[in-house]
Each structure stands twice: as structure tokens, then as C-alpha cells.
Specification:
This protein has 627 residues and is mainly alpha-helical. It is 72% helix and 6% strand. The chain has helices at residues 3-14, 34-47, 49-58, 64-79, 84-97, 104-120, 124-140, 144-160, 164-180, 184-200, 204-221, 224-240, 244-260, 264-281, 284-296, 301-317, 321-336, 345-360, 364-399, 403-411, 416-462, 473-487, 504-511, 513-530, 554-570, 599-615; strands at 494-501, 536-539, 544-550, 572-575, 579-582, 585-591, 621-623. A hairpin with a 4-residue loop joins strand 2 and strand 3.
Length: 627
């Protein structure tokens, strides 16, 4: 399947599916009272993990699967709070509470979190194996989002191990499936991981783009902690790209989220980012206090090692050789104590930091030797990564589940004629796919336009009186309701004029109902012709018509009513070619007032005035009594 076909699949398959927000954590059929308590807390795990953590710890210990689920929610809550001891303890307790009948949702999500906490301990190979097994098992159980979550974290584990090529290949499938499933959370998680990987690869433009996309995705879901994590990644990308001021701004935004929630791990990360950035800006006077505060905050040791490198350079620039050497020694001791960091950029950068320190202290020969070691190690790492990337690409393509990647691998070994044939076939498919897309969109547009036309026509017909073609009672009263509601907010006066054709029954009895219909049609037309711009007319009863006069006081309404009476008195309706019917009308007027500020009150007042006009001899205009 080529790229265009995948896009078409995304268009046609994604539309009927609801957008997802995160992998499910609660199993079906969980017994009470645990079910209600845990179900209420599940959304908080993602939107407010700080509060969720405390409430979950306050719950009583449950039995069996309920306890495994509580520990799962707790582990997920503390995951990005970087309380690694609590994470490991919750995962261990959750796994211990599982039994053979436990739900796959709980079992595989706990396995995912177990893989994540193992990766954090530096055992990347074991973490990758566990996450791969979890992803395969979750897929077999039909838990697509749980499987994708595992794959996204697997990519992150590969990235932490320095195997960026494999990380990107793994992540490609995750991002594509998340997009097709409209899974906003997993799409943001994939974007965040892309941002980190491209930062490691020194490709800062895509790193910044993906980090921004992740921030937007998390913000749309209201997941503040995840948004903060992506902000930290964006700030780091800016920092490595040499864009220090945007980096400081992003670190400050990250800091505001974490400090507002009293997050100590977040406080350390913010101090780390700000201290490193200030040091790289060369503002050591601002950097050193931040670095020391971060070191005192008891953060992860590998991050402490980075802080100590920067502190060493700053101390050297200040001429404090002892402090500089001590900081370098402490940094080297930390890195050498973490086997997973051996022959990584973090270890190699020690020689670069030592060179910077020696140069700042004036020992240029020693600085040169350290810089030479740095460049040799850097070159060796690049060669190693290049070799590993080629091998990892071959391995990934062989195991890739996508038909496209398998086809591409096979076609690389074919002769040029087959390659040309494949290209031609793909071009035909793309043209056909594009044509199908255009035709499909055209059909959808035509259907929508046709339906809109019918809806407009139906609405117009539903708002009109069939006989006279003026507005009907329902339509005019909706307009009157909107007008009176607006006037209740102090927007001026409005009046209505209620008109009733005199002796209309006698016209029907004498001339017949067709003649009566003709009288009503002529009446509606005559009244329509005397209306001013903005006025409205409707037939509200058998021979009753209503005029709605916005922005019109009692005096203005009386003028319109008198003109309507005179117009109808002068009207001549010819029937059967030679017989003429003359009509008159009785009219009642009402204007809005403090105690006449509803449609019912206003209409009742006009009806009462109309009644008085009838009683007083007809063919006259009466005003409603003072409200």
C-alpha cells in the first residue's frame, strides 16, 4: 500500500471512529466498591496525577484484581512525577496481586510500566524485550492502544540506549496507527518521542516541530503533566540548537506547571534545564547557583553528572581550579558507575568538558589532548552508530509487519526493469487513488449541497402560510420572542399590531370559501406593501394578521395601524370577473412596557385592544390599556 492509499484509508476509516485519549486502565466487571472508587480516579491519573497519587494512596488495600488495578493507577500516576521508587513499588505490588483470571488490560499495562521502570534503571535490553512481549500480547488480546503505548515506550528505550535508527523505525508504526485510530494521546506521545530522538541526532528543526505538536496534543486533552514533559523536550531542543532565549522561556513555562503543583522532581528538572542553559550562554554567575540548587535537589545521577560538567567549566572560567577538577571528578565517577552510559555521548562529553576546563585554566597542552580524545571517541561513536543503523534497518525491515516495507525490501534486490515497473505501477495507483479521492469528495460535496438546498426549501416552506405566502404563526412568534428577549436587555421599544378582517364569516357564507381565500390573499398583499424595512407580517389565525414593528413606540405603531385600516378600507377584491367585495378591519395595538415584557403579555394586550375595537363598531384602531 503506497503513501496516498494510506492517506485515503485515514480519510475514510477515521471519520466514523471516536477520538481516543489514552489506553484503558480499568478492567470490565470490577466489583464494588473498588469499581466506583477507581473509575472516578482514572481520569485524574492523566489530567491531575498529583491529586490522583494522593487519593489512590488514601484508599484501603483491596483484594486480587481490584488491588492490582489500584496499584496500576498509582504507578501510572507517579510515572511522570519521576518518583521511581514509588513506581517500582507500585508495579511490583500490582504484578504480585495478579492471578490467572486477571484482565489483560491490567496485566499488559502493568507489564508496560514494568518495562519503563526497568529502562529508567539503565537495563535497556531487558526493558526492550519486556515491552516487545507486552506489545505482542496486548495485540493478541485486541488491546490496540495498550500495544501502541508499549511500542512508543519501546522506541524511547531504544533512544535512551543510543539506538536511534531502531527507535525511529519502531516509532513510525506507532505514529501511523495512532493517527489512523484518532488516538490523540498516543499521537502526542509519539510526537514527543520523535522530538527527543531528533534532539539526540542533532536534527533540531524536526525536533522542535514534533515537540510543539506534542504540546498541542497534550494541551487539547488537558494533560498538564504530559504537556510539561513535552515543554521540557522543546526547551532542550532549543538549548542544543543554540537558541538559548527560547530555551529559557520554555524551561520557565515548564517550571510554572511543576512548581504550581509542588512537584519536586519537576523543580529539579527546571533547575537543571535553566542551569545548563545559563552555563551555555556563558552567564556563569546566574548558572552556578541554579546548578548547585539542582544538585542539592537530589535528582537522577546521570543528570547530576551533566550539571557537574557545566559547573566545572564555570568554575574554571572563574579561575577556581580546585572546584573545577572536583566537579569533573564527581561527574566522571557518576558516569562510570552507570554501565549503560559507557561509550555514549554523555561519557564522551566528559573529555570535551575537561578540554574546556583546561583551556579556561590556561593548560592548553592538556586541553589539546583532552579535545583530541573527545574527537576520536566522537568519530568512533559516529562510525559505530552508522554501522548499527544499517544493521538495525535491515533487521527492522525483515520483521516489519507493514506490507509496504516488505515490498520495498524485496524490490531493492530486483533488476532495474522490475524497479521501473514498480515505479510505474505505484504512479498508476497514485493517480487512481487521487481520482477516487477527487470523485469521492465531489460526491460528498454534491450530496451536502443538495441536502442544504432541500433543508433551506423545507425551512422556508415550514415558516410560510400556505394560503397567503406570509409568515405563519410559529415563525412570527419565534421572531417576536427573540425581539422581546433583546428588549429585556434595554434595547428600546417594540410594538405589535393585531388585525382582524371584519365579518369574514359573512363573506364566506355569501360568496363562498374560494372568495374568502381570495380576500385573505389580497389582504396579506395589501398589508405587506405598507410595511417599512424591518417590519414583519404573519397570518396568525383564520382572518387574523399580526404586524411586528421593531424599534417602534406607541405613536409610530398607531400611524402604521391607521395606514393599514385605510388601505384595507380602500381595497376592492374582484371575484367572478365582475363582483366586487369591500372589506374593513378592526385593529388592536400594544407596545412593550415594564409589565408587558413577555410575548404572552404583549399579545394579550393587543388582543384586548382588538376586542374593544370590535365592540365599538369595527373598522377602527384601539390602543392597549396602559401597562
Amino acid at each position: 500500500m503506497n503513501v496516498l492509499c494510506r492517506l485515503l484509508a485515514a480519510v475514510f476509516l477515521a471519520s466514523p471512529l471516536p477520538a481516543l485519549s489514552q489506553p484503558p486502565l480499568l478492567p470490565p466487571g470490577l466489583a464494588e466498591p473498588a469499581s466506583s472508587q477507581l473509575r472516578n480516579l482514572e481520569p485524574l491519573v492523566w489530567s491531575d496525577p498529583w491529586t490522583a497519587r494522593q487519593r489512590l494512596k488514601d484508599l484501603p488495600v483491596f483484594e486480587g484484581e481490584a488491588e492490582a488495578t489500584r496499584q496500576l493507577l498509582l504507578a501510572q500516576a507517579v510515572l511522570y512525577l519521576y518518583r521511581d521508587d514509588e513506581l517500582a513499588a507500585a508495579v511490583e505490588a500490582g504484578l504480585a496481586a495478579l492471578d490467572t483470571n486477571s484482565s489483560p488490560i491490567v496485566r499488559f499495562q502493568l507489564a508496560n510500566l514494568d518495562g519503563i521502570q526497568i529502562a529508567r534503571s539503565g537495563d535497556f535490553l531487558r526493558a526492550a524485550s519486556l515491552l516487545t512481549q507486552s506489545a505482542d500480547g496486548a495485540r493478541a488480546e485486541g488491546l490496540a492502544s495498550t500495544a501502541l503505548y508499549a511500542i512508543a515506550e519501546l522506541a524511547w528505550a531504544y533512544a535512551r540506549a543510543g539506538d536511534y535508527e531502531t527507535a525511529l523505525l519502531v516509532l513510525q508504526d506507532t505514529a501511523e496507527e495512532a493517527l489512523l485510530a484518532q488516538d490523540t494521546f498516543l499521537k502526542a506521545l509519539a510526537d514527543e518521542t520523535y522530538g527527543v530522538i531528533y534532539t539526540y541526532l542533532d536534527e533540531f528543526d524536526p525536533a522542535i516541530t514534533y515537540s510543539r505538536q506534542a504540546i498541542e496534543g497534550y494541551a487539547a486533552l488537558g494533560y498538564r503533566l504530559n504537556e510539561a514533559e513535552a515543554l521540557f523536550g522543546l526547551a532542550t531542543a532549543y538549548r542544543y540548537a543554540g537558541e538559548r532565549e527560547p530555551a529559557v522561556e520554555a524551561f520557565r513555562r515548564y517550571q510554572s506547571i511543576m512548581v504550581s503543583n509542588n512537584d519536586e522532581a519537576g523543580r529539579f528538572s527546571a533547575l537543571y534545564g535553566l542551569g545548563m542553559t545559563q552555563a551555555e550562554l556563558g552567564t556563569c554567575a546566574a548558572a552556578l547557583p541554579l546548578i548547585q540548587e539542582a544538585l542539592d535537589a537530589d535528582g537522577p545521577p546521570d543528570y547530576d553528572a551533566e550539571l557537574l560538567k557545566r559547573a566545572a567549566v564555570c568554575h574554571a572560567r572563574a579561575g577556581d581550579a580546585t572546584a573545577a577538577r572536583n566537579a569533573l571528578t564527581r561527574s566522571r565517577s557518576i558516569i562510570e558507575g552507570i554501565p549503560a552510559l559507557e561509550v555514549t555521548r554523555w561519557a564522551i562529553d566528559l573529555d570535551k568538558a575537561e578540554s574546556d576546563v583546561d583551556a579556561a585554566l590556561g593548560d592548553y597542552e592538556r586541553a589539546y589532548r583532552a579535545l583530541l580524545r573527545y574527537h576520536e571517541a566522537e568519530l568512533a561513536l559516529q562510525r559505530k552508530n552508522a554501522s548499527e543503523q544499517r544493521q538495525s534497518r535491515r533487521t527492522a525491515l525483515e520483521n516489519d509487519r507493514q506490507a509496504l516495507q516488505i515490498e520495498l525490501l524485496q524490490e531493492q534486490a530486483r533488476v532495474r526493469s522490475l524497479e521501473v515497473e514498480r515505479q510505474q505501477r505505484e504512479q498508476r495507483n497514485e493517480r487512481l487513488g487521487f481520482l477516487l479521492l477527487v470523485v469521492g469528495l465531489a460526491l460528498v460535496a454534491a450530496i451536502v449541497l443538495w441536502r442544504l438546498r432541500d433543508l433551506r426549501k423545507f425551512r422556508e416552506l415550514s415558516n410560510r402560510d400556505d394560503l397567503t405566502a406570509v409568515a405563519n404563526r410559529r415563525c412570527i412568534f419565534e421572531q417576536l420572542q427573540a425581539l422581546v428577549t433583546g428588549l429585556a436587555e434595554g434595547r428600546g421599544d417594540a410594538s405589535i399590531v393585531l388585525i382582524d378582517v371584519d365579518d369574514f364569516k359573512a363573506i364566506n357564507d355569501r360568496y363562498g370559501h374560494p372568495a374568502g381565500d381570495q380576500v385573505l390573499q389580497s389582504t396579506a398583499q395589501a398589508l405587506s406593501e405598507i410595511l417599512r424595512p424591518g417590519d414583519e407580517i404573519a397570518r396568525v389565525g383564520g382572518e387574523e394578521f399580526l404586524l411586528v414593528l421593531p424599534r417602534t413606540d406607541l405613536r409610530g405603531a398607531e400611524g402604521v395601524a391607521k395606514r393599514a385600516r385605510e388601505t384595507l378600507e380602500a381595497l376592492r377584491v374582484t371575484i367572478d370577473g365582475n363582483r366586487v367585495i369591500m372589506i374593513t378591519a378592526s385593529i388592536g395595538i400594544a407596545t412593550t412596557a415594564p409589565r408587558r415584557d413577555t410575548v404572552d403579555a404583549l399579545y394579550a394586550a393587543a388582543d384586548e385592544a382588538l376586542y374593544r375595537a370590535k365592540a365599538a363598531g369595527k373598522n377602527r384602531v384601539e390602543l392597549a390599556a396602559t401597562a
